[in-house]
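Structure (tokenized):
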């Protein structure tokens, strides 16, 4: 693979010291960062490199990590904007999903990859159709966690139990993507769609194969009421009793939490995914983000699917997460812009067990890098560049998105990807699907 040198004005490393390097260089080869530091001390001569990129006003940040999405749900973007979660799911989404073809889903995924790359996202945690996700990743190689969905408290729910017998097939599919870009997670959908037996089986299989568990947790008041009525426990207490809460759990939403729930999440080292736009749009409520961060719980960010939040833009989620807490808590001091950037990078990497590989720009980590145009009118003056990135930056300011050393997005274009075809096919398929509903 090519040896690349990138020179920029700043690198926001997101390393343990949160170093910001001025007049900086990053070098990488075979998908791995070999140097990140001052441009004066590059340990190679320029002739060593096949590819040299100089962005005099560029700001490099680690690739953003979207820890909860349903990538191909962009097929339903704008189709059901004004319903509560239960009706949204049962009356709109499930009937639409019953009409999806495999090709629809592949194109939904491909279009979402274009959106994510143009928004600086290099890694995402998906919860949707596994096979079609892998098909799409063969065409556009982002880094991903692919979730095997399980739900048995629905019509035909027994089919999901068969998946436990086909695990090797899922592992093989994930391994068919080169460079180890794909990791597998088990995905019990939620406590109201999964039986206790199913959740117990998930615990057993997760332990046996050391797999992440990705689940919707305490998203709505309705879910909390269901849990109280059926189990006499909060959703968190119930999940804890089953033994499913640990450092492998990626718990999406965690909106409605009692003090005791927060203690359990802390004690069991659960990773919580904040999806502020989705939670607001579906009128679910507000995650007590400040309380979770103060309890040292690992909180990362997600966009949820584009059918619920309409956008896969994590810059938007960083900003919204902070503003929402301030609006609710009336405390302008916490959390900060830096906290938001860490949630979208380092914390995401920790949540999916990849902190040794991604989440910061440091030697020996993977070259998942985003370069932003520091001369964008939105990002001047360069007084506090972290504040600028979180509060002012938009995807229009992104110059490069690099995944595992490959430039997948450059100045509005996607090198080696037929964007025109993907957009055209996607639109035809989505409109056909929606018009028959
Ligand atoms: Zn979701």
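Design, position by position:
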């Amino acid at each position: 693979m090519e040896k690349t040198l990138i020179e920029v004005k700043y690198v926001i490393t997101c390393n343990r010291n949160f170093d910001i390097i001025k007049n900086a260089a990053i070098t990488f080869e075979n998908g791995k960062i070999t140097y990140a530091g001052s441009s004066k001390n590059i340990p190679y001569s320029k002739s060593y490199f096949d590819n040299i990129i100089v962005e005099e006003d560029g700001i490099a940040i680690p690739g953003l990590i979207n820890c909860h999405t349903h990538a191909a749900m962009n097929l339903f973007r704008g189709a059901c904007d004004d319903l509560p979660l239960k009706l949204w799911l049962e009356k709109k989404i499930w009937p639409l999903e019953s009409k999806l073809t495999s090709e629809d889903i592949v194109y939904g995924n491909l279009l979402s990859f274009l959106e994510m790359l143009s928004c600086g996202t290099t890694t995402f945690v998906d919860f949707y159709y596994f096979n079609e996700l892998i098909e799409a990743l063969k065409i556009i190689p982002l880094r991903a966690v692919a979730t095997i969905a399980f739900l048995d408290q629905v019509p035909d729910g027994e089919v999901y139990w068969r998946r436990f017998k086909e695990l090797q097939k899922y592992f093989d599919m994930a391994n068919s993507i080169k460079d180890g870009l794909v990791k597998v997670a088990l995905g019990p959908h939620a406590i109201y769609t999964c039986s206790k037996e199913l959740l117990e089986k998930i615990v057993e299989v997760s332990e046996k194969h050391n797999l992440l568990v990705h689940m919707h947790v305490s998203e709505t008041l309705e879910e909390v009421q269901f849990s109280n009525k059926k189990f006499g426990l909060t959703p968190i207490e119930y999940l804890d009793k089953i033994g499913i809460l640990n450092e492998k759990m990626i718990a999406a939403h965690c909106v409605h939490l009692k003090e005791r729930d927060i203690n359990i999440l802390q004690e069991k080292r659960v990773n919580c995914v904040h999806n502020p736009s989705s939670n607001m749009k579906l009128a679910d409520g507000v995650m007590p983000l400040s309380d979770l961060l103060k309890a040292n719980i690992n909180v990362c960010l997600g966009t949820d699917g584009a059918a619920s939040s309409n956008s896969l833009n994590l810059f938007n989620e960083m900003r919204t997460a902070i503003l929402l807490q301030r609006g609710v808590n009336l405390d302008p001091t916490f959390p900060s812009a830096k906290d938001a950037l860490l949630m979208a990078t380092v914390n995401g990497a920790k949540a999916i067990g990849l902190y040794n590989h991604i989440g910061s720009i440091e030697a020996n980590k993977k070259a998942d890098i985003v370069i932003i145009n520091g001369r964008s009118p939105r990002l001047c003056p360069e007084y506090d560049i972290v504040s600028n990135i979180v509060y002012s930056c938009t995807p229009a300011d992104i110059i490069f998105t690099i995944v595992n050393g490959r430039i997948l997005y450059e100045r509005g274009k996607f090198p080696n990807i037929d964007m025109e075809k993907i957009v055209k096919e996607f639109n035809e398929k989505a409109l056909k699907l929606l018009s028959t509903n």
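Reviewer-requested clarification: The chain has two domains: 3-62+369-403, 64-351. The mean pLDDT is 97.
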